[in-house]
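FORM 12-B: Structure-to-Sequence Request
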């Protein structure tokens, strides 16, 4: 009997359940992540409130980077900033060419894509029934 990735993420004794980590409001912090990604020239930033829809997380953020170097650097920066804000990092992953990096912050999943890879996986369609979280502009 094989274990799916969903089984691992939701049942692993090391990974807290979303909403139980005592973190600040993930939807509010998603706006901060979105602003950081905007400041670093990411494109097409989308934040989705998947509470009640996903058993894995509360917010999904999807953004397109302009190069593999930018994507890797942003993943590290988002992880560092999220840790400072109290969001534990359960880890992350990337494909071999760094066309997709995912950060698991338990209550927030951040997906950074190269545009063609993003179009291939089309996460916005997967979570199409989730409400969008408006990413504000800097004042």
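FORM 12-B RESPONSE
SEQUENCE OUT:
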């Amino acid at each position: 009997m094989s274990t799916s990735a969903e089984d691992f993420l939701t049942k692993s004794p090391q990974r807290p359940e979303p909403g139980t980590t005592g973190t600040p409001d993930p939807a509010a912090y998603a706006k901060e992540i979105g602003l950081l990604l905007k400041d670093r020239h990411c494109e097409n930033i989308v934040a989705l409130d998947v509470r009640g829809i996903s058993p894995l997380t509360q917010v999904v953020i999807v953004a397109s980077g302009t190069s593999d170097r930018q994507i890797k650097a942003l993943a590290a920066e988002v992880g560092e900033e999220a840790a400072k804000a109290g969001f534990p990092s359960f880890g992350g992953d990337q494909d071999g060419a760094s066309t997709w990096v995912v950060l698991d912050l338990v209550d927030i999943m951040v997906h950074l894509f190269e545009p063609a890879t993003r179009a291939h996986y089309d996460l916005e369609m997967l979570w199409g029934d989730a409400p969008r979280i408006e990413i504000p502009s800097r004042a």
